[in-house]
Design a protein that fits this description.
Elements: E1 24-26, H1 28-34, E2 42-48, H2 52-63, E3 66-71, E4 76-81, E5 84-90, H3 96-100, E6 111-113, E7 118-120, H4 125-130, E8 133-134, H5 139-144, H6 147-159, E9 162-163, H7 165-174, H8 183-194, H9 199-208, H10 221-225, H11 233-236, H12 241-244, E10 247-249, E11 252-253, H13 254-261, H14 268-277, H15 282-302, H16 309-319, H17 323-332, H18 337-347, H19 363-370, H20 376-390, H21 397-408
Parallel strand pairs: 2-5, 8-9
Antiparallel strand pairs: 1-2, 1-6, 3-4, 4-5, 6-7, 10-11
Helix pairs in contact: 6-8, 6-9, 13-15, 14-15, 15-16, 15-17, 17-18, 19-21, 20-21
Length: 419
């Protein structure tokens, strides 16, 4: 864990003497400090009465750290230190009380004067923390930034809190306004919920409350209920765990995308539209597209006692790195480990010719030995040879070339190519 503590400025990677008087630590860091949370990485939010940009620039220069202007109009600047992110923001209103009155929930409307060691809690957020409640400050604050509606469920999952009754009712009433939030911000809140082991329960609650509807109109209740089963897979099936934790992108694992798939419709076009609208990457969309498209194919194969090698070969080639995801889907559908163990064994063996196309000759070999022109005919021959290898019909380069010579006449040549 980080040695940094939000209430011990001497542990911060910069000196508070470099900031002007009248500043306050606010928001999540104060809340998490009061909850005595241990974290690997802290996000400190400090409000200042003056324009923060000049101070941020001096800090960045003095401590040799990165600086990003998040919002030039609202004067919000981020500095990135090891194990800590510092956001500096110009105070909203004339004083700290006015600033805190514009925040989302009482547990986030907390401030600590790091120079005098005084706490400011005008909305009784500490009492709500003690009572494990998320309570809004005012409905207008939620209406002003509808993403705060979704954030309530994320905070409830992260901190194991309950959304207070009146706040809960207001959130449900305002749910349609989430359609107006920038997709990147929705994706980020969703990402934090999907990465939380308790997030499934709160996503199901959010769906029931209409919070997901503006962005996920095609949620199917059957798949949604699977959200409660994904996090137990890596523990129940340790052989599969390394594959579940592999990254599709820097901060998104296979397990993360499996949970995301549970919020999407069965038809691939609808799923692609939702993911594209939410600005997911091409790699993420392609991975989930394979899960949706190939799951019915894979399910048919695992219900056959001895599926043909050719069908297995085709499935492996189409699935590629999405194969472990299909295995995980089979497990949450109660097919059991004995059904999928052999598939994982083949996938993790790079020398298995069924799981990995292992042609005994190269395209260059075919072009040179059979006097073929470069083109799709060569690719098709290589695929047929890889399948023959998988089926055990050939095992040497010589046998592969002999078979290729026989197959050569059977491989169709495009009509616009002169041979």
């Amino acid at each position: 864990m980080s040695n940094l503590h939000p209430f011990e400025p001497e542990t911060w990677p910069f000196s508070i003497a470099d900031l002007p008087p009248g500043g306050y630590l606010v928001g999540g860091a104060v809340r998490d400090g009061l909850l005595h949370r241990n974290k690997n990485h802290w996000d400190l939010d400090i409000i200042l009465p003056d324009d923060v940009i000049p101070y941020a620039q001096k800090l960045a220069q003095k401590y040799h750290t990165g600086l990003v202007i998040l919002d030039a109009e609202r004067r919000i600047v981020r500095l990135i230190f090891p194990q800590m992110t510092l956001d500096l923001c110009q105070m909203c209103g004339q004083d700290v009380t006015t600033d805190l009155s514009q925040r989302d929930f009482t547990i986030n409307a907390l401030a600590w004067n790091y120079q005098t060691q005084e706490f400011y809690d005008p909305h009784h957020g500490q009492k709500d923390l003690e009572n494990r409640l998320i309570r809004m400050i005012h409905p207008h604050n939620l209406r002003h930034d509808p993403l705060r509606l979704f954030r309530a469920y994320r905070l409830a999952a992260q901190l194991e809190l309950t959304i207070e009754t009146q706040t809960h009712q207001t959130i449900k009433t305002l749910a349609p306004s989430l359609a107006d939030v920038a997709p990147e911000r929705v994706q980020n809140e969703l990402h934090l919920l999907l990465d939380n082991p308790l997030g499934g329960n709160y996503l199901i609650q959010a769906w029931s409350d209409g919070i997901l509807t503006p962005w996920f109109p095609g949620v199917e209740s059957y798949w949604l209920q699977l959200l409660l089963r994904w996090d137990g897979l890596w523990f129940s099936y340790p052989e599969l765990a390394p594959e579940l934790h592999k990254k599709i992108r820097q901060d998104r694992s296979v397990l993360h995308l499996l949970k995301l798939r549970s919020l999407l419709p069965e038809h691939r076009e609808g799923a692609q539209q939702i993911l594209t609208r939410l600005r997911y990457s091409r790699a993420e969309i392609q991975y989930i597209d394979k899960l949706i498209t190939l799951w019915p194919v894979f399910e048919r194969l695992i219900t056959v006692p001895e599926p043909p090698i050719s069908a297995q070969f085709d499935l492996f080639q189409q699935a590629g790195q999405a194969l472990p995801g299909l295995l995980a889907i089979a497990l949450v559908h109660d097919y059991g480990w004995p059904v999928v163990a052999g598939w994982l064994e083949r996938f993790t063996n790079p020398q298995d010719p069924v799981a990995h196309a292992l042609p005994l000759v190269s395209g260059h070999d075919l072009i040179e030995r059979l006097h073929l022109p470069p083109g799709p005919q060569v690719g098709q021959l290589l695929r047929w040879l890889a399948l023959a290898h998988a089926e055990g019909r050939i095992s040497t380069p010589t046998a592969a070339l002999e078979l290729a010579a026989i197959l050569q006449g059977a491989v169709p040549v495009p009509s616009d190519r002169t041979v």
